[in-house]
Design a protein that fits this description.
By secondary structure, the protein is an all-alpha fold. The chain contains five helices and no strands. The protein starts with a helix and ends in a 10-residue tail after the last helix.
Length: about 160
């Protein structure tokens, strides 16, 4: 049990950030998939246009969720800087998703809804890994006033050997 407690203490901040990022991301995922399918099937838009519009809506939702909840404790940057970087990295994430959907649709010639959704989900997964790394590394920074010590994820010590 001490091993689990030590592992949790060591990675507490990381565990909480990933869990919250995952919840926000799951909701954004449903916005993206639902929106893309609704725009493609219901509105008759093309596959890349549908993914782009749905991803933009999900990105705005994700920015608010990540800024105000998942990374709320990271106060080391200004809103303007965070916003620019967040949306720039999400633009790159969108390009990752679009590349996978375009490769399936135009490269492999897969035109059915199932293939479209599989490609979209794979693209979202790859883009999500990219986003988590960039948010933690460049967007939502810790301030320099000592809050960084919580981010170092060192184990708690009880004073006994």
């Amino acid at each position: 049990m001490d091993l689990l407690r030590d592992v949790y203490a060591r990675f507490r901040v990381l565990i909480h950030e990933i869990a919250k990022f995952g919840i926000v991301g799951t909701l954004a995922f449903f916005i993206t998939i639902g929106g893309a399918n609704g725009l493609r099937s219901g509105a008759g838009l093309g596959p890349l246009t549908s993914v782009t519009i749905a991803t933009i809506v999900a990105t705005v939702f994700a920015f608010l969720g990540n800024k105000l909840w998942a990374f709320r404790h990271r106060k080391g940057s200004h809103l303007g800087r965070e916003s620019v970087l967040f949306f720039a990295f999400n633009g790159i994430g969108l390009l990752i998703s679009l590349a996978v959907v375009a490769a399936a649709r135009y490269g492999l010639g897969l035109k059915d809804t199932f293939s479209y959704n599989v490609a979209n989900i794979i693209g979202i997964g790859l883009a999500t890994m990219f986003r988590l790394y960039t948010y933690r590394r460049w967007v939502f920074l810790m301030d320099d006033s000592g809050a960084l010590t919580a981010e170092q994820l060192e184990p708690e010590t009880s004073g006994t050997p």
